[in-house]
Amino acid sequence: MLAWLRRYAARAAIEHELFERIVAQSRNPYFYSVLQVPDTMEGRCEMIMLHLSLVLGRLKREGMAGQRLGQALMERFFASMDDALRQIGIGDMGVPRRVKKTAAAFQERARDYLSALAAQPGGSADGGEDALAAAVRRHVLSNGEQPADFAAAAAIARYVRRSQAALAAEVGDRLFTGELALPAPASATEDMIEQ
Fold first, then answer.
1. What share of the chain has pLDDT > 70, as a percent?
2. What is the pTM of this model?
């Protein structure tokens, strides 16, 4: 019994550490100050969903253990959403509906990001906006008030590709210790964003 409890506690600590690293990367001020991600609860949630999509895509390569860790990360994400909604005053009746809506939004975004990454590893063949930048612009940058910046979307798309490459090169065992090596967001913007 004690051995099982120790294993459970160790797994919970790893899940917690990995999720905290996803959140920390998603909250990097560069996304909000330079790359025009709205610095709102919605904007921060979008960045967490973007990073979580990438990590879950990488964990699929790790078989059943990766799927279990991915499921635990999803559960932790939705529990944190539940907590955040309650902290801002959403009542007991409204929280489940909003969490369900967030779950549907996450599935849509994960599908859009991962299919765009699989289909177009580089830019668009015709020189236009590629599928990944379009998904970023639609989900992350569009706040309904002003059109999203194409250059910012392209820079975030480059960052996403570099992040996917970094995760692909990551040894699976490191993920199972809570390690997460992602590039700095500024590395994708050197030639695109003018301040």
1. 80
2. 0.85
